[in-house]
Design a protein that fits this description.
DegT/StrS_aminotransferase; dTDP-4-amino-4,6-dideoxygalactose transaminase; Aspartate Aminotransferase, domain 2; 436 residues; Aspartate Aminotransferase, domain 1; 12% strand; pyridoxal phosphate
Length: 436
């Protein structure tokens, strides 16, 4: 008789896991305070004191900057718009090349295209899953303008080597920290090391405001340009006396007073939420390390902090005797999702398909690819371009979210029990693979 749920056996856990809900009375009170003023947004898209927003926007930005020890923070309505803003601020023009990661949310790579820039993909490191410095350097040409680093899953990229490469080639560095709030690299917060940092406040991140984002920098000029692009730059360049009008056509990327009031309360909770997340990861690592077919991500070097947006695990099919997909499907069958996530499993194979395999790159869909300034030799999106990223995604890596705050010891032990059950009965899966 089958023991594994995927083959008709009993499921390890029948009840949903707890919701990950960081919203409490503090956020409710803050929202009501804003509602009572009737002032839900105070931005004006003109050269005026309110060009920089209302009191909650400014307080949130000030507190974010202070928390990270950086000079400036600019709120925007998403990490995506933050990336778009950053690309405009650094002056990306048609034909400029930006080195990007193939293994990230699509906006991390698409941002240069908004201004006619060309995304150039560097392969990832098989341990950190961030861009590998040696691959970055191999992609640099005379047209390269910037490196867009992604601290994927919350693991800090190798910023010493990346910054050294940038200095050597006179490149700008933008850090995509969407999954890494308060992650550290050798004692420094990510988002404060490069020229600009971008954070996400989307609803499924560590903390959130529903939608939202933050840009950080110590560079006064870049921040000034970010503030203009965020809020109708074309209306203020005249009164401000701006002479460099490159990309000074603005958008409406503004956050509201309500969102920033929520953000103030969420930011105050972030240290404790992160501490609980790290405790849960440590618990799972201790129990999962006994399974030789699983390769757990090592701790980053001393002084660095991984924030674990998800918990990445590499699967060794030679040791297990089955492939990763078979294992993950069996794990999904043993464990339910969570409250508020009923239709979305908390386990996934790989992360995202390497971005250059998307239709927009395969078909060169967009004016930037065909612009006379573009170097067609640099537009290489052929399968096999980033072999490590492809191997991780299609064969080796899987991720899960069972380490989120709110999980009790009993919840975590149910997760461990599911892993144990599959390895104890792995011959059931081998026979299924053989029949297939």
């Amino acid at each position: 008789m089958a023991k594994l749920a995927i083959n008709g056996g009993d499921i390890t856990r029948t009840t949903l896991f707890p919701a990950y809900n960081t919203i409490g009375q503090e956020e409710k009170d803050a929202v009501m305070k804003v509602l009572e003023t009737g002032n839900l947004s105070q931005f004006l898209g003109a050269y005026h004191n309110d060009f920089l927003g209302g009191p909650n926007v400014r307080e949130f930005e000030s507190k974010w900057a202070k928390a990270l020890g950086v000079k400036h923070a600019v709120s925007v309505n998403s990490n995506t718009s933050g990336l778009f803003t950053a690309m405009g601020a650094i002056g990306i023009q048609p034909g400029d090349e930006v080195i990007v990661s193939p293994y990230s949310m699509s906006a991390s790579a698409i941002a240069p295209l908004l201004y006619g820039g060309i995304p150039v993909f560097a392969d990832i490191d098989p341990v950190t899953f961030c861009m590998a410095p040696e691959s970055i350097e191999s992609r640099i040409t005379s047209r390269t303008k910037a490196i867009l680093v992604v601290h994927i899953f919350g693991h800090p990229a190798n910023m010493d080597l990346i910054m050294a490469i940038a200095k050597k080639h006179n490149l700008i560095v933008i850090e995509d920290c969407a999954q890494a709030p308060m992650a550290k690299y050798k004692g420094k917060y990510v988002g404060t090391i490069g020229d600009l940092g971008i954070f996400s406040l989307n609803y499924h991140k560590h903390i959130h405001t529903g939608e939202g984002g933050v840009i950080t920098s110590n560079n006064d000029d870049l921040i000034d340009r970010c503030q203009m692009i965020r809020n109708h730059a074309e209306n203020v360049v005249g009164p401000k006396g701006i002479e460099d009008l490159t990309n000074m056509i603005g958008f409406n990327f503004r956050m509201t007073e309500i969102e920033c009031a929520i953000g103030i309360q969420q930011l105050a909770k972030l240290p404790d939420l992160l501490a609980e997340r790290l405790e849960n990861v440590a618990f799972l690592n201790e129990h999962l390390s006994k399974f030789s077919a699983l390769e757990l991500q090592p701790h980053p070097e001393k002084g660095s902090v991984h924030t674990y947006y998800v918990h990445p695990i590499k699967f060794n099919k030679e040791i297990a005797g089955i492939d990763r997909d078979t294992f993950v499907n069996a794990l999904k069958a043993e464990l339910p999702s969570a409250i508020l996530r009923e239709t979305a499993p908390l386990i996934g194979m790989g992360y995202v398909k390497p971005l250059y395999l998307q239709p927009i790159y395969q078909q060169r869909a967009g004016w930037a690819f065909n612009h006379p300034a573009a170097d067609q030799k640099s537009i290489n999106y052929t399968p096999g371009l980033c072999p490590i990223a492809e191997k991780m995604h299609f064969e080796v890596l899987f991720t899960h979210e069972f380490m989120r705050p709110g999980m009790s010891t009993e919840d975590l032990l149910d997760v461990v029990s599911a892993f144990q059950k599959i390895f104890d009965n792995i011959d059931e899966l081998k026979s299924v693979e053989t029949r297939a």
